Amino acid sequence: MPRHKNTEETNRESSLVQAGYKYMQLTGDKTILTEKVGDKTVAKRLEWSMDFLIKNRINRQYGSIIGATTADWSDVQPEQGWGVDLDKNTHQAIDVYDNAKCSSS
Q: What's the pLDDT tens digit per position in 20-32?
């Protein structure tokens, strides 16, 4: 079976930001923000992660992050298709996991 990138899932972005925050909180080391990954700093990549969520995954009515209605570790949706892309068949849902991660410290 071919592997597919799960583009409907949002916890990658929120997990990245939370991991960066927790690392800096635990170690006191903020120099990681200036480290480069490829041609971008860690700070820029964290900013990109939040920008993506704000621009593409916010339910404006509730101010919460949305994703697809999924099961099985976020790679199966009840609609036709792989469940890896938000498309016209997707039933969007307020993503409880991501919203909890983004509101916790």
A: 899 999 999 999 9
pTM above threshold 0.90: no
More confident residue, 39 or 53: 39
- Cβ atoms of 57 and 66 within 8 Å: the answer is yes
Q: Report the 10 Å Cβ neighbour count for 56.
A: 12
For the chain, give the number of residues. Answer: 105
The token pair at 24 is 């800096």
Burial of 63: CB neighbours in 10 Å, binned 0-12, 13-18, 19+: exposed
Instruction: Spell out the alpha helix ranges (H) of 1-105.
Output: 11-27, 42-56, 96-103
Which CA distances in Å does 11 have to 27, 28, 38, 98? 23, 25, 22, 5
